Amino acid sequence: MSEPQVVRYDVEDGIGVITVDNPPVNALGPGVREGIIDAVGRGNADPGVAAMVLIGAGRSFIAGADIRQFGKARTLTTGQSTKALDESAKPVVAAIHGYALGGGLEHALACNYRIAVPTAKVGLPEVLIGILPGGGGTQRLPRLIGPKAAMEMIVSGRHVPAAEAKQLGIVDELVDDKDLRGAAIRFAKGIASKRPLPRVRDKSDRLAEAKADPGMFEAMRKSIARKARNQKAPYHCIAAVEAATKEPFEQGLETERRLFAELENADEAKALRYAFFAEREVAKIPGAPKDYKPPRIKTAAVVGAGTMGGGIAMCFADYGIPVKIMDATRETLDKGLQRVRDNYAVSVKRGSITQAQMDERLPRIQAVERYEDIADCDVVVEVVFERVDVKKEVFAKLDAVMKPGALLLSNSSAIDTDIMANMTNRPQDVAGAHFFAPANVMKLCEVVKGTKTSNETIVGAMQMGRDVGKISAVAGSCDGFAANRSRAPFITEMMLMLEEGALPEQIDKVMVDYGYPMGPFAVNDLSGLDISYDTRKRRAAADPNYRKLHVPDRLVEMGRKGQKTGAGWYRYEKGDRTPHPDEVVKSVIADVAKEFGIEQRTFTDDEILRRLLLASVNEACKILEEGKAYRASDIDVMWLHGFGFPRYRGGLMYWADTVGSKAILDQISEWHERYGARWRPSNLLREIGEKGGVLREAKAGVPL
Ligand code: T1G
Fold this sequence. Notes:
Elements: E1 7-12, E2 15-20, H1 32-45, E3 51-56, H2 78-86, E4 92-96, E5 99-101, H3 103-110, E6 113-116, E7 121-123, H4 137-145, H5 147-156, E8 160-161, H6 162-168, E9 173-174, H7 180-191, H8 208-212, H9 216-224, H10 233-246, H11 249-264, H12 267-281, E10 300-303, H13 307-318, E11 323-326, H14 330-350, H15 355-361, E12 365-368, E13 379-382, H16 388-401, E14 407-410, H17 417-421, E15 430-435, E16 444-449, H18 455-467, E17 471-476, H19 483-499, H20 504-514, H21 520-527, H22 529-542, H23 550-557, E18 570-571, E19 580-581, H24 583-595, H25 605-625, H26 632-642, H27 652-659, H28 661-675, H29 683-691
Parallel strand pairs: 2-3, 3-4, 4-6, 5-7, 6-9, 10-11, 10-13, 11-12, 13-14, 14-15, 16-17
Antiparallel strand pairs: 1-2, 7-8, 15-16, 18-19
Bound molecules: (2S,3S)-3-hydroxy-2-methylbutanoyl-COA.
């Protein structure tokens, strides 16, 4: 066996212990399946062994197949190593801690018994990387817990806590034992002589559920229709579980293998695998001290009790961190806290949290009125008005009171971080922490590095983001940082295409068909047209060359601010959020075009899609060129978690590579000719495009 020794086998007290040791998460990389098969063989051949235990070393059981191996030739499949467990003459007990995911859970399901520690999690999350469980999971799990519960787990891909896994019947026993190995050996001894061996494949009683409710599969297909648009994997998952209720086990395995093969190298799976690793890569800070572990945030403060301030305070409270929220007046504070209470109440009503969780989280948010009251907090996030003078005043006060080593963060969405940092004697401790609205929902936290921000502060702010359930990504300080700056040209193009003859409903349909949950104009109506109106006014005042966006400005000046005024890009019936195209908007567009002598024409859907996304691809290249983001894949993570970019398309730069950098350079050069300076190809794009290179692997041209 040429592969590294990633599986150990030893015998203790008549029990053969098979330990998978393939850090960091015991993925089924090269040598692991072979090692398991070999060890099971040794245990069965050894008369001194009555039973076996399968366990993981380090922090986890087995987190599934090695995702890096997909698309490559495999010497052995999970089907073969699970078969060895299935056919073992002696009982095997799976002892689960950390994660038993994908092929990891499939190995456990092929064992005769499963025990777990209470903190363990199990799941078949393959659908999240565009495939389905390919090692028997779609055939064994329905037999163990029934097709309905199995289908829900496999189609959602969620990680199921051990206690629920016990309730479902996946786990036979919870062992609250620091010494899982010892507990497993005792358990194995207890069942060693029991015959016949319980094998999940032999169970069929739970499959009867499907006879009682044959419509469950169609019902599931209907329930995922909106979310699973344009995707194959979720439907293949349903088909595989359905096969388990209609076909004998071996035939069902064959169906599973066929469906798996259809997905493994499809575009959807490749894009989702890219997203998986991009989300891991984004956490790596070039130049950060290798073993630096930032102090964990135990107490937090938020300055500013507005909508964003309240949302950010909820993030801390949701993850168990006591947070002090501060504002200038009691009245603003009370209003802010009431908004927080209302948000939680809506979540309870919707069932996304329980009343008990609300009652647990609310007391963690404490209102205070004085800077001195927050002085001992580990981090403070400033969320006051987007006005330079107000920000400066706040940071001067924070510098005066906050304890040494506290993280001083600003939630500004555009103001240069250095402006706040220079108001302090500790600019190295100042950074941006830009949350996206609604802050307690959107996953992205853009950590902004000022020119004097230390790497330790960046690492600390990134960890804070992860501690409150966010995906943190680093941007350099510039107008709009990386996320908003890369999206700004998208917005400009969508507004200018209106003047040239496209309609909001056509552009929205293109983006919804592409995979977005809502079109950009409908999103604008939801968030309010007046928000961006103020930003545009500020930009026009600062830059005489700034291209005014006449149509949205006029709508705001007409009082059409979106859903909150019953009209914006669309009109809305009272109490109904359905957008209805509005003749008024068409006439405003026609007036602007006439007034500015803009010729109107028709647009193909493809041209609309490319104008919007290529404008941002070009800007993303400029951001990298200037060193305002570390990696192109970081910008993709920002689009996935900040702007709802369809995940099965990988991300903006990943999608760009499906078009091809050369074709993109040619297109943008052509539009540069036609539309002028705003379409000047970035030097980095030119450099990569001329070589036909890969955009998603582009890195910062200069250090951040
Ligand atoms: N393959 C390869 N590398 C993996 C991996 C995997 N399955 N899981 C994690 N890693 C790497 C990851 O890239 C990172 O590396 C490090 O481990 C720590 O991960 C036949 C076909 C287990 C919940 O989908 O969900 O089985 O960046 O930062 O936050 O049916 O990792 O340090 O170099 O995410 O504590 C199904 C994927 C595979 C689980 C831990 N399994 N992993 O989260 O750490 S398909 C999955 C996770 C399959 C079978 C099919 C999470 C985690 P680096 P991390 P974490």
